[in-house]
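Input record, target 12 of the design panel.
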């Protein structure tokens, strides 16, 4: 297995550059330097600079935490944990690999999640719309590091950075008065994807899909895609219709509820969805 190569200028800067070529930024805009790798003082700063949402894993014992922006395009968060080095990167870039790992086993496909384990490094890559994130683990004896532990840390980060599970709006909901009616809310970047299943009986159901944005205390959308499905007594599908409705609708956000008080169908305007809280 060939040894991994990190980006050359990164290695040089971290290991051998003079101190006056690097700045620690405290909320002020850094001056333009020949050095393409600028050090900041927090995750918030590098996320804001690049437009990404890197988070720190919730594990104890992290050391030597550092925050960089590379060429104004890539945010990089470094830390050591139990003798191993972690590098988390984020960028608005889905067309080329941002990991800094040059190895024949590191196969990049635009928009495709990827993970791998070698004797020299572990790598995980995922996307959130136009944003790409990579997580790399290196260090002496990395091949003995638990793949399950690495996977669990990556999953924790992915749930927040890709699936936005820290967003209180994201999740599964049930209609208060109709136990067979569910709303599922996901988020891609800053857009919310909503899907509703309305089951009138075992043999007939409707689905409603819309993409919304948060505006004050509402999720506002510009159209509904409606599916209608009917089954016969043998549960064979006999009606499969889909229509699009150009309608400016919205859900009101209220505590752990989404109130669909502006649906295209007036009969649905009293629907109130309460978030399902799953036990850990």
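The sequence produced for target 12 reads:
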């Amino acid at each position: 297995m060939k040894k991994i190569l990190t980006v050359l200028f990164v290695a040089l800067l971290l290991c051998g550059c003079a101190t006056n070529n690097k700045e620690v930024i405290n909320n002020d805009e850094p001056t333009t330097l020949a050095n393409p790798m600028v050090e900041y003082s927090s995750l918030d700063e590098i996320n804001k600079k690049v437009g990404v949402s890197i988070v720190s894993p919730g594990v104890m014992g992290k050391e030597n935490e550092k925050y960089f922006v590379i060429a104004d395009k890539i945010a990089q968060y470094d830390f050591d944990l139990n003798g191993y080095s972690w590098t988390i990167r984020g960028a608005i870039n889905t067309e080329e690999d941002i990991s800094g790992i040059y190895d024949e086993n590191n196969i990049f496909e635009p928009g495709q999640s990827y993970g791998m384990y070698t004797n020299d490094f572990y790598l995980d890559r995922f996307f959130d719309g136009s944003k790409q994130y990579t997580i790399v683990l290196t260090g002496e004896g990395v091949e003995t590091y638990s793949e399950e532990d690495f996977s669990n840390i990556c999953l924790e980060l992915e749930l927040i950075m890709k699936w936005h599970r820290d967003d209180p709006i994201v999740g599964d909901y049930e209609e208060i008065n109709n136990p067979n009616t569910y709303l599922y809310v996901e988020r891609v970047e800053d857009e919310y994807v909503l899907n509703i299943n309305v089951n009138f009986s075992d043999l007939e159901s409707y689905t409603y899909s819309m993409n919304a944005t948060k505006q004050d205390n509402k999720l506002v959308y510009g159209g509904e895609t409606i599916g209608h499905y009917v089954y016969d007594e043998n549960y064979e599908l006999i009606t499969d219709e889909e229509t699009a409705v150009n309608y400016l609708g919205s859900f009101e956000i209220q505590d752990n509820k989404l109130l669909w008080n502006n649906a295209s169908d007036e009969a649905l305007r009293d629907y109130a969805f309460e978030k399902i809280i799953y036990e850990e």
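Residues 1-34 have pLDDT under 50 and may be disordered.
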